[in-house]
Fold:
Amino acid sequence: MTTSSDLVVQTEQLSKVFRVGFWGKRVTAVEGLNLEVRRGEVFGFLGPNGAGKTTTLKILMGLIYPTSGHARLFGRELGDPQTKARLGFLPESPYFYDYLTSREFLGFYGHLFGLWGAVLDRRVDELLELVGMTHAKDLQLRKFSKGMLQRVGVAQALINDPELVVLDEPMSGLDPIGRKEVRDLILRLKESGKTVLFSSHILHDAEVLCDRVAMILKGRLVACGRVTDLLDQGANHQVELIVDRLTPEGLDHLRPLTDKVVMQGDRMLVVLKSQQQVGGALEIIRAAKASLVSLTPLKGSLEDLFIREVEGHRSPTENRA
Structure:
């Protein structure tokens, strides 16, 4: 059972409406959002671009105000100075003073939190080592790659040793190496006892990192829970077989049980429609005196879940388009 002291982030019917254009047209960015992020977990806030992720995080950081509803951090209302001291934040598109070196950059943010002298120097050195940037401590930020900037940006978010680290699209625009570096950083933060809330539209990264995730679509929450539980909901778990020397007659008997058959020389890759087909498939393979090389259950993915949710929330007009 989750107690109130375990909740780091809590929103209740949180909504945000913007007025845009000359006529002040109402655009709902977030609608009736209920979220809970627990202490010590990595929580993924997922959705396509424009779904309302950044708007929600800006509300939590106190950068914009909600239209209605409530949000609390560490059980306190937003804007509480003591709460802000326990936060670390990396926005999606941060602006850094690129003429500074990474050591100077972190020193500047350390001063904002009241750190000076030897205490600040030790903290800067610790963070540069944590994010793997010690080699670039005296290099100007303008000479950094996107992955290096993201890493030093995470270090900035940790300068005050926060309890909650909020990262907005930390893997966006990174190459595979940069994404791996940021993923490793998030895992190290979890190991050190931090609570991490990050938004992303890259579903594989969330699947690898998160204890729980929430999916938002057009400002509304459409799914929330543990990754394993969400993947089990409504999933039709298929099974992949690799079979050696199956006769044409055996293949004819096997085809009604399959979704896909791919020939690979004397071997074939067979994807069964569901786990319930495994027993019948094995009997056919034995009867045909073929060899079963491997049997692999195919788990659902967050991408599959996301596609199901998107399809389920399309309007009739969008489905006809």
User: Anything to note?
Assistant: The chain has a mean pLDDT of 89. The CA atoms of residues 22 and 28 lie 17 Å apart.
